[in-house]
């Protein structure tokens, strides 16, 4: 169900910024973003949780991804956190409208410092995913580490976000990155290196896929 566990975000400034950015945009977010947030559905397909598995989305926004994942994996238990109360309000409404309040639980939390136990009452998740949020989180390295740390044995972390557009024409690349900056979006050039460091010595495998000439990068860190 869409319960009300809360965790006070440690970065109140970022919380206020995200509420301001999305207070109005949240109402048209899914309609407009479907044209350029590429790779999200591929990430959801790659989750492949077993029946009864727990799946967390960090930065769940409007709940769009959680709703699709819940429909695709009806026997999984879905959870979402976001620092923006405005986005969570929209997510709760969308999830209720989809009839999935019994399968998806939401909580307000800071992606860089959250406790699965405090929020949801169990220590770890089978799957954790982050879709186009790493590029908007100031301390994104801490968010990646927190997401990886929330995995249980045999779990996997999945991330899709803007790449460096390395295969695009230079003019198109510059225009895209200038446009992204208007929305406080910064593609993380060393995301793969940070994930490789997290995975090192942890009996894990890191998979990387570059989509659409590097427009988007898709990563999966899988615990053995």
Automatic annotation (TrEMBL):
Leader sequence residues: none
UniProt-recorded name of the protein: O-methyltransferase
Provenance organism: Aureimonas glaciei
Methyltransferase domain sequence ranges: 55-155
Taxonomic lineage: Bacteria, Pseudomonadati, Pseudomonadota, Alphaproteobacteria, Hyphomicrobiales
InterPro entries referenced in this protein's UniProt entry, alphabetically: Methyltransf_25, SAM-dependent_MTases_sf
Domain of life: Bacteria
